[in-house]
Design brief:
The chain is α/β, with parallel strands linked by helices and 208 residues long. Helix content is 21%, strand content 22%. Strand 7, helix 4 and strand 8 form a beta-alpha-beta unit. The longest helix has 14 residues.
Length: 208
């Protein structure tokens, strides 16, 4: 697969809290960093996303007395998994992994900063209606194909990939550059949803 000048590498949430030792660590999450750094060298266009929650965000279990992390509640916009407090604005946990090469990024999309709604996708809040503005940015730049890598495969990568396809972008998930939480079968469900949406999955760098 030839990388073109209208391709984008979309790097999802490679932040300290999602890496080993973080508040919501993804197993082996830091292993994506050197892979993503090598990938970024091959793309003319790179965008980063950054989870950026206020304290006591509505997706945190601590904001709901009597509930524990990874339980599910119903919010006005639908079902919401409750998470440990993570990626709180301005904290070390919200910072990008220190070895992640960020200098070539043309844009950083911060998400999850609205107190009452979570945001997995780089394109929409979890209400599926409130846009981040990324789609318009890509269209105005003439970017047509989105490659995704980052954390976690079954949540923010998955939602971003499905939305990219729904918005009309050719979409490829580079699985070697991703790691999953796999909460109660969420990885298999995410892969099925991505396949149904027409997202292409490639295993490693050699396949692109």
């Amino acid at each position: 697969m030839q990388i073109r000048n209208d391709d984008l590498l979309l790097i999802i949430d490679v932040q300290n809290d999602f890496c080993p030792g973080g508040a919501l660590a993804v197993a082996d999450g830091d292993a994506v960093v050197p892979i993503i750094n090598r990938l970024a060298e091959r793309f003319d266009h790179v965008v980063l996303t950054q989870d950026w929650h206020p304290s006591r965000h509505s997706s945190f279990a601590t904001a709901h007395p009597g509930f524990a992390p990874f339980e599910t509640i119903t919010m006005p916009y639908g079902q919401q998994t409750l998470w440990p407090d993570h990626c709180v604005q301005g904290t070390p946990g919200a910072a990008f992994h220190p070895q992640l090469a960020t200098e070539r990024a043309e844009l950083v999309i911060r998400k999850g900063f609205r107190p009452d709604i979570d945001s997995y996708s780089a394109f929409y809040e979890n209400d599926r209606h409130t846009p981040t503005g990324l789609a318009g940015y890509l269209r105005e730049r003439g970017l047509r194909r989105v490659f995704l890598a980052g954390l976690a495969t079954d949540f923010c990568v998955h939602y971003s990939a499905v939305d990219a396809r729904r918005l009309g972008f050719d979409t490829v998930v580079i699985e070697a550059g991703c790691r999953a939480i796999d909460l109660a079968g969420s990885l298999d469900a995410a892969r099925a949803a991505m396949a149904e949406a027409g997202v292409q999955r490639v295993n490693d760098l050699a396949t692109i």
